[in-house]
Specification:
- The protein has about 400 residues and is α/β, with parallel strands linked by helices.
- It has two domains: about 220 residues, Type I PLP-dependent aspartate aminotransferase-like (Major domain) (Aspartate Aminotransferase, domain 2); about 140 residues, Aspartate Aminotransferase, domain 1 (Alpha-Beta Complex).
- Helix content is about 40%, strand content about 15%.
- The protein is built from 15 helices and twelve strands.
- It has a seven-stranded mixed β-sheet, with helices on both faces.
- The longest helix has about 35 residues.
- The chain is globular and about 75 Å long.
- The structure holds pyridoxal-5'-phosphate.
- The site of pyridoxal-5'-phosphate has 17 residues, from helix 4, helix 5 and helix 9.
């Protein structure tokens, strides 16, 4: 069967863009090489000039990385992808490849700690203006638009409190004002939400999270149109060099083969854990977009296929009690990764969101009694029992 005959996304994630060698290997080959050899000086000249296509140097492109990029584009229905060394390299490059001094960026306030640091304190060093808005409120986006506004940036749902941004409404507003929309779609994964369907221009991913999903490698990806990739993104990334290692790209391609199964099963586990925690007498409340009590439940239903495997909850008590709970866990690891097969907890206020000011944390409901839980693939009963014994013990 020709690969073009494949209709289903899962088939493509498993079989697209294979670069087979003469050895007829069955698995994806791993091209662990920094450079590629030219047969003649004339060929090197032709490839550098662009008259002939061919791999040159892994900082520019590599067959194993190409396989990962083509499959990432498939998973989201985007035209094109460029892989990066980490999710943060993707976030930074997606901004800097198109910004210059005098431009203005509008960003939602509720962001992952490092994204907020990049937008608030790093890009502003280069003469780029930034405004933060309440991402939930379309009027607040509208109010901040100026003649030099170039980019809207947000994540939905937000980490760790699950505020949603109405992707379609924000994209419509952006289009009408010639503004590009970058969305960080990491928290629920590409399996459960396809932002390009609602009109986004650029989507950034951390391969480290659900794409690997087994705690092994770092990686990132930027999804966009082919025109944007070729004209703006590629020149920037080729010369600044935050490229992914071919080995990591190979691991991530293997992750894509099972991502659908993993994320759906993890999310089913999470839905049951949400119900269990919401009814627990040591728990004040739970943040999860697919709970009926979530203030943006209807929007979540429109944008996401499921609620996702990550949730957060408030313990009844102070920081000490919350730390007690975390320390009493026997199976669940304390780790700031997410989307992993292993269930993981983290205390956002003192780790992932430590860099925010007290006021910023309060604005985002990141209190000392908040715990984030990434539900894994262990059996539901084991996850539940571990949470239960630790809650009872505090
Ligand atoms: C983890 C994460 C990132 C950064 O990804 P890395 O691969 O760790 O660099 C960015 N945004 C969100 C929402 C994340 O969860």
């Amino acid at each position: 069967m020709l690969k073009n005959d494949l209709k289903g996304k899962n088939s493509k994630l498993i079989r697209e863009a294979l670069h087979k060698t003469q050895f007829r290997e069955q698995s994806e080959s791993l091209f662990l090489t920094s450079g590629f050899v030219y047969q003649t000086a004339e060929q090197a000249e032709a490839i550098f000039k662009g008259d002939e296509t061919g791999f040159q140097y892994t900082r520019y492109a590599n067959p194993t990385i190409d396989t990962f990029e083509k499959r990432m584009a498939v998973i989201d229905g985007s035209e094109s992808c460029f892989a990066t060394a980490s999710g943060m390299a993707a976030v930074f490059a997606s901004l800097m490849c198109q910004l210059q001094a005098g431009n203005h960026v509008v960003s939602a306030t509720a962001l992952f700690g490092s994204c907020r640091e990049v937008i608030k304190n790093i890009i502003t060093r280069y003469g780029i203006e930034v405004s933060f808005v309440d991402g939930k409120n379309i009027e607040s986006w509208k109010k901040e638009i100026k003649s030099n506004t170039k980019i809207f940036f947000f994540e939905t749902p937000s980490n760790p409190c699950f505020e949603l941004v109405d992707i379609e409404a924000v994209c419509k507003l952006a289009k009408a004002n010639n503004i590009k929309v970058i969305v960080d779609n990491i928290l629920v994964s590409p399996v459960l939400q396809s932002p390009s369907k609602f009109g986004t221009d650029i989507i950034v991913y951390s391969g480290t999270k659900h794409i690997d999903g087994q705690g092994r490698t770092m990686g990132g990806a930027i999804l966009c149109s082919t025109k944007f990739r070729e004209e703006i993104l590629k020149p920037f990334l080729r010369h600044t060099g935050p490229c992914i290692s071919p080995f990591n790209a190979w691991v991530l391609s293997k992750g894509l083969e099972t991502i659908h199964l993993r994320v759906v099963e993890q999310s089913k586990n999470a839905e049951k854990i949400v119900k269990f925690l919401a009814e627990h007498n040591k728990v004040e409340s739970v943040n999860y977009p697919f709970r009926k009590s979530h203030p943006q439940y209807e929007l979540a239903q429109k944008q996401q296929k499921m609620g996702g495997n990550v949730l957060s909850f408030y313990i009844k008590g102070n920081k000490k009690k919350t730390f007690n709970f975390i320390n009493k866990l026997k199976m669940i690891d304390i780790c700031n990764n997410l989307g992993d097969t292993k269930s993981l907890v983290v205390h956002p206020a003192t780790t992932t969101h430590r860099i925010l000011t007290d006021e910023e944390r309060n604005d985002q409901n990141i209190f000392d009694n908040l715990v984030r839980l990434s539900v894994g693939l262990e059996d539901f009963e084991d996850i539940k029992n571990d949470l239960d014994q630790a809650l009872i013990a505090i």
